[in-house]
Specification:
This protein is α+β, with helices and mostly antiparallel strands and 546 residues long. The protein contains 11 helices and 29 strands. The strands form 5 sheets. It has a 9-stranded mixed beta sheet with strand order 1-3-2-13-12-11-10-9-8, with helices on both faces. An 8-stranded antiparallel beta sheet has the order 14-15-16-17-18-19-20-21, with no helix packed on it. The longest helix has 15 residues. It is globular.
Length: 546
């Protein structure tokens, strides 16, 4: 293990608080950031920008205490952590301790790692997201969904891997996996005989002089922490990661991340440079327009990047292929900043439109409920649930939509907006979807609607029969009685309401899926069948609701 430390030279980092516009941050990006702060999309935005040898920190917005953020304000960087784990792997490979072909099981001899026909998961499979492991463990049922990784320890990781069956050979296909990268970080730490937090601190943070970065908040970091917020601007808990720390545990600042970025770009000399360059090297296809290295993604235009997100934060890190321009973007809101990051690096990269949410009378929301035909086999259903309106396209999950004006709504993903159209009598007759153009969709008449479940009412006593824990091959379903309704939470997902359509029959509104419960001869609920995407998946009931 190398334990060298590099004494950093003075890093040229200048703090600029808007509305002044920094020379290194494109004017259109600065304008978009100001608009998003004004619209309440983000509480704060902090950019660390590299332009040749020059670096600047540019900040927007105010923290909850009314103060402006700065280069030492602490944010969760989420999955950008994976690039640190990748650097640790590359270091281990260059030192000769392991290779990318080393089976992860060799580093964890006490673990039973899933395989197929003697084809084992390698360290390279994990680092390129080709392991065959799912996004989250099949037994991932957090005690606190708002801090979901906190109680997932090494014992749970070991038990989960021992029973998981790979759906395909390792190395066969790309599938993003927090479980896979968490396993990689855990294995590297175990082979070094130290916790992941100590390994990344010793091998990267101390080497680069990143004094305000850690997997756990120090007192100094906590004093500079930007509190996180969900996509609606409500306070969100910080995330703590245990065994899966290598997938997303790091907290950092713009100043520290500029040190990391400049080292990755080769602008600042570092003993980590060979490992960083190796990690960035494209190795496998991710999609038609992107390839993946060890965590790092490269676009067809040569942008090298990764993003991150936790319950209350989003982040973006990237640089151009010529290694002259780079950016780190940090925010304390769970709303993507990817377009801001890419637009900082590419003059023609699109920026998502900015909308400001406004309040409409509660009763008026019912006007927009209905099903709209975008094409012969592609429908868009608008419905009410919980605290607002949702839109669900054929074959997709529902997303919340927010009013920006009467008849105008927007989503906080993919630059989507909707304009509803009315007839002379004021009735909604259609909508126009604004995404990659304008797409008109007439509202279907009742006689044109496809068959769908009809909601019926059941009392709390009857609903209680179904509450409990059900085990699928791919995960668990937790059905909970919440007052006068049931909510179901599948492994790694939030809880969503389910609605009765008949005796032992329920359906989701958030996705096109149904649940049929089964009873035994004693009339006790013993199993459930999930119908989704043309598949029928059965789960036995393994416990009742406490």
């Amino acid at each position: 293990m190398r334990n060298s430390r590099l004494v950093m030279g003075a890093l040229a980092v200048f703090l600029i608080s808007m509305p002044a516009i920094a020379g290194t941050l494109p004017e259109r990006v600065a304008k978009a950031a100001e608009e998003r702060i004004a619209a309440g999309v983000h509480k704060t935005l902090v950019f660390g920008v590299v332009d040749g040898d020059k670096s600047e920190v540019v900040v927007f917005g105010r923290l909850d205490d009314g103060k402006a953020p700065d280069g030492d304000t602490v944010y969760e960087i989420g999955s950008i952590t994976k690039t640190f784990t990748a650097a640790l792997l590359a270091q281990a490979v260059l030192s000769g301790r392991v290779s990318l072909e080393t089976p992860v099981g060799q580093l964890l001899p006490d673990f039973k790692i899933p395989s197929r026909e003697a084809k084992e998961i390698t360290l390279g499979d994990l680092a390129t997201q080709y392991s065959g492991l799912p996004r989250l463990p099949s037994d991932f049922m957090p005690a606190d969904p708002e801090n979901p990784y906190a109680d997932y320890d090494a014992a749970k990781l070991k038990d989960s891997l021992a029973t998981y069956k790979l759906p395909r050979d390792p190395g066969a296909a790309y599938e993003y996996s927090n479980l896979g990268f968490g396993l990689l970080g855990y294995a590297l730490a175990q082979s070094a005989h130290v916790p992941y937090s100590e390994l990344v601190d010793r091998e990267i943070f101390k080497v680069l002089g990143m004094t305000m970065s850690s997997t756990a908040l120090t007192d100094a970091m906590r004093a500079h922490l930007a509190p996180g917020h969900d996509e609606k601007g409500k306070p969100a808990k910080n995330w703590d990661l245990d065994a899966l720390a290598g997938a997303g545990a790091i907290r950092s600042t713009a100043n520290d991340m500029l040190r990391y970025l400049r080292a990755n770009m080769g602008i600042d000399s570092s003993p980590l440079s060979p490992a960083m360059i190796s990690a960035q090297q494209s190795r496998r296809d991710m999609s038609k327009t992107m390839r993946v290295g060890l965590a790092w993604i490269t676009t067809y235009r040569g942008i090298v990047w990764h993003n991150g997100g936790t319950g209350g934060y989003r982040s973006f890190l990237g640089f151009t292929g010529d290694r002259r321009h780079g950016v780190i973007v940090l925010t304390d809101s769970a709303v993507s900043v990817d377009d801001l990051g890419l637009a900082t690096l590419e003059a023609d990269a699109p920026l998502n439109p900015v909308y400001k949410e406004t309040a409409l009378p509660e009763a008026s929301l019912d006007d927009y409920v209905g099903t709209f035909r975008l094409s012969a086999n592609f429908l868009l259903k608008i419905f009410r649930m919980k605290d607002g309106l949702y839109a669900r396209a054929t074959g997709q999950s529902a997303i919340p939509i927010f009013p920006s004006a009467p008849n105008e709504f927007f989503a906080r993903v993919a630059g989507i907006s909707l304009t509803f159209t009315r007839d002379g009598a004021g009735a909604v007759t259609g909508l126009v979807l604004h995404q990659n153009g304008d797409h008109a969709a007439p509202k279907l008449e009742p006689s044109e609607l496809p068959p769908e479940p009809h909601e019926i009412a059941l009392d709390a006593a009857a609903l209680g029969d179904y509450a409990g824990l059900y085990q699928f091959d791919f995960g668990r379903l937790d059905v909970v009685l919440e007052g006068d309704h049931l909510e179901a939470r599948l492994t790694g997902q939030p809880a969503f309401p389910i609605f009765a359509s008949g005796h032992d029959a329920f359906f989701y509104k958030i996705v096109d899926a149904q649940l049929d419960f089964e009873r035994n001869a004693d009339n006790k609920v013993v199993a459930v069948v999930l119908h989704q995407n043309g598949k029928d998946m059965r789960a036995s009931r393994i416990a009742a609701q406490p």
